[in-house]
Amino acid sequence: MKSDLKFLKIFSTKSAAELSREICRKIGVNPGKLTSKKFACGEQYVQIGESVRGCNCFVISTATQNVDEDLMELFLIIDALKRSLAKYIHVVIPHFGYARQDRITDPREPISAKLVANLIETAGAKHIITLDLHSDQTQAFFEKPVDNLTAQKLFLDYLTRRKIKNPVVVSPDAGGAKKAERFAKLLNADLAILHKSRPAHNRAEIQKVVGEVKGKTAILFDDIVDTGGSVAAAADVLRSKGAKQVYLAATHAVLSEDALVKLGQAKFTEIIFTDSIPQKFGKLKNVKVISIADLLAKTISGVHAGRSVSKFWETHKN
Length: 318
What we know:
single chain, about 325 residues, alpha/beta, Rossmann fold, 2 domains, seven-stranded mixed beta sheet, five-stranded parallel beta sheet
């Protein structure tokens, strides 16, 4: 592997700079040289600072609250690599922006997730690596190969070390029930499902709890926490139903608006996120951040070496 690292190049948008540096450190390569800035008019500019001709290039990016800027920078980097004769361009996008807009729910809406997928491929990406897509079927929006990794094993390892007694995994809605059920089996825990309605965007009302949580430690398991309203309401409902403690485990910490305030008021025993999105948690002290750098580094190394990464990947899925 050492002999061909010179043909491996890893670049990053500003949104994933810290994560990218850690991935490079684990693989044993230097981050790719890249200039990225804005002109006075607001247009973005990028320039690749080294030769990538014939190289296997990975671009690491992630959707933050500045998702449109993040994506535009990503498109420009991909295009620059394509025009610089990179052999193969892989996009590593842990948090896929617009993932929740994956279907039409009201008349005259776009399917934004598919549009973003099309734009990534049009820019020149030949392979996409992502993490815990909001819906597994979003993979079908791409014509190129997609590896949808999961952080389940990372959460499992951490919670197992915590030696939680009498756990019950709670899905925040029916849509997440299948993922929560898989995680509950791994944790050897019971399963409960919250039924909720959405009267408006970023608003949720919990109707009922299906499953027994009384006297148990509830682990609310989700892929994304955005404004925090849904999970905060869920914590209140679970405690009202007799849960002794409530944990929150979620892959992507979007944390828009006053999410940190809501999470603080929700009084979770512990909140567990990955570092798929760079965040500062301020006064919120009960947060544990689990790194995905090793998972991505090993995946990238396997892809670059032409090896099957399925054995490693499956250990993080099942």
